[in-house]
Write a structure and sequence with these properties.
Elements lengths: L4 H15 L2 H13 L1 E2 L2 E2 L8 H15 L6 H10 L6 H13 L6 H9 L8 E4 L2 E5 H13 L5 H8 L19 H13 L9 H6 L18 H12 L2
Antiparallel strand pairs: 1-2, 3-4
Helix pairs in contact: 1-3, 1-11, 3-4, 3-11, 4-5, 5-7, 7-9, 9-11
């Protein structure tokens, strides 16, 4: 039996928490707590948002070392917000099916994903935007791996987006790597039994801010719970 993807994400977050020093863990905990609002977590806008609350709850459970029942309804509700056709709605539908212990049909999932497959590897977010991206490719590869399928060419395409710093770019044209792309790429490669060409730990640490958060890129000086999530996801996917 394969663990659901959401549980595998939790495993990676827990590994990252255990790798942190006591001082580092306290800094991350303090930052995550500072982002709590009444009823959830906020982002740059200041108010409670479902999008940031899902990351805050996942971090909360990883830092405490326990599974919080609130995760399932968050995944379901956030998935409903993805109204545009594309890989992301497929991914959230897949997560929802897993959380209901309803194994998705392998043939149906593979067939639906092929519409977004780029000719030389990678997956596009939508048919209206046919260029492959790291995020869409990682979502597709994770689903394929979970149902026992594989796409080695797209795994190679994903690996090609890592540079000498250890970071991954969002797409081949992106000027610099970012923490979001690095987190999802590291998780996906680890899930599929692959190793990145360059260890990602130094790249992640270079984005760790004094306030305990993680910056999106080296050009940014702010953080939120989303980027703490991606920083820990990258660290724990080794």
């Amino acid at each position: 039996m394969k663990w659901p993807l959401s549980i595998r994400v939790w495993f990676s977050l827990r590994r990252a928490v255990k790798l942190l020093s006591p001082v580092g863990r306290m800094a991350v905990q303090a930052f995550v707590k500072s982002q709590q609002k009444s009823g959830g977590y906020g982002g740059p806008g200041g108010g409670v948002e479902p999008y940031y609350t899902q990351f805050g709850v996942l971090l909360e459970q990883a830092l405490k070392g326990c599974w919080i029942p609130r995760v399932r309804p968050l995944v379901v509700s956030f998935g409903k917000e993805e109204k545009d056709g594309g890989v992301y709605p497929l991914f959230f539908r897949f997560l929802n099916q897993e959380l209901r212990l309803n194994r998705p049909s392998k043939e149906k999932q593979v067939h639906e994903l092929q519409a977004f497959r780029a000719e030389k590897g990678g997956y596009a977010q939508t048919l209206q935007r046919p260029e492959p991206t790291t995020n869409a490719t990682c979502a597709a590869l994770a689903m394929l791996w979970q149902v026992g399928a594989a796409d080695e060419e797209s795994l190679q395409w994903l690996s090609s987006l890592q540079d000498e710093t250890g970071g991954f770019r969002a797409n081949p044209e992106a000027p610099i790597p970012d923490l979001l792309s690095t987190g999802v790429a590291a998780f996906t490669l680890h899930l599929c039994g692959k190793k990145p060409k360059v260890e990602v730990a130094d790249f992640v640490e270079s984005h760790w801010l004094e306030n305990g958060g993680f910056a999106p890129t080296l050009l940014d000086e702010y953080s939120d719970v989303e980027y703490v999530f991606y920083g820990l996801l990258a660290l724990g996917s080794r």
